[in-house]
Write a structure and sequence with these properties.
Length: 252
């Protein structure tokens, strides 16, 4: 009988408590405070009636979606210096915001967003592992709420999203495959993965590495199975949240 136990007592395949709170940022077109346990991210979506210069120059049809990501100075135990103070953007933040943008663009038909740019801003309020996966999961909800406002106001004819998107972390911690790693597990994990999937079960991106360690094909399969289970549960939570917020209008 194994004596393995996770620091917070969860089962290996159990998500942290997940919550979504709508309209956390009233000036955004759509916003959500997403919590994965103690990780909390404010996701705000704003829509501009303009497109990037490169689209105009190249006569590209449709609209655009882009994302920005940052960690607030007090989101970590030791104060994180602002990018503006450092004089340059943190490389990790750039990588994560590109991931968020790629993930959302995988499930949106930009031709149905003509002449508009959908900005998604993810600001980490509190970091305890999985900030990028929480950001992607919450960013979709904020963007979906923003899009619905434009539809209701007559600025858009139809919802440009053709599926939902969510993400979760998995890893090997003390020789066990575990789902949704908080910081203490992420720090000590021998393998760390972030998996982005659609609500229909299609993979968008898999980021994984051995942290100065190797992993077997069986361990890879175990982690992907956990990620699939986790995203399926997240997708159901997203659908329930949108059903409540949009009064049942869940047409993609």
């Amino acid at each position: 009988m194994s004596s393995f136990s996770r620091p917070d007592g969860r089962a290996c395949d159990e998500l942290r408590p997940i919550t979504f709170e709508a309209n956390i940022a009233p000036n955004a077109t759509g916003s959500v405070l997403v919590s994965f346990g103690n990780t909390k991210v404010i996701c705000g979506a704003s829509i501009e009636k303009r497109v990037p210069g490169w689209m105009r120059q190249q006569n590209v049809e449709g609209g655009w979606l882009t994302a920005e990501y940052s960690m607030l100075p007090y989101s970590t135990h030791d104060r994180k210096q602002r990018d503006s103070s450092r004089g340059k953007q943190d490389g990790r933040s750039v990588e994560i915001q590109r991931l968020i943008g790629r993930s959302l663009r995988a499930v949106i038909d930009l031709k149905k967003l003509p002449g508009h740019t959908l900005w998604v801003d993810c600001d980490v309020l509190q970091a305890d592992g999985g900030t990028r996966t929480a950001s992607i999961t919450g960013a979709y909800l904020a963007a979906r709420l923003a899009v619905q406002k434009l539809i209701d106001g007559g600025s858009l004819k139809e919802n440009p999203f053709n599926d939902s998107i969510a993400a979760i972390s998995v890893g090997i911690y003390e020789d066990h495959a575990v789902l949704d790693l908080p910081y203490i597990e992420d720090r000590d994990a021998s393998v760390d993965f972030n998996v982005v999937m659609t609500g229909k079960g299609q993979y968008v991106e898999i980021q994984g590495t051995g942290e100065e360690a190797t992993f077997s094909e069986e361990q890879l399969a175990d982690q992907l199975a956990l990620a699939k289970k986790g995203v399926k549960e997240l997708s159901a939570m997203q659908a329930a949240f949108l059903t409540k917020e949009l009064l049942g209008d869940l047409k993609f």
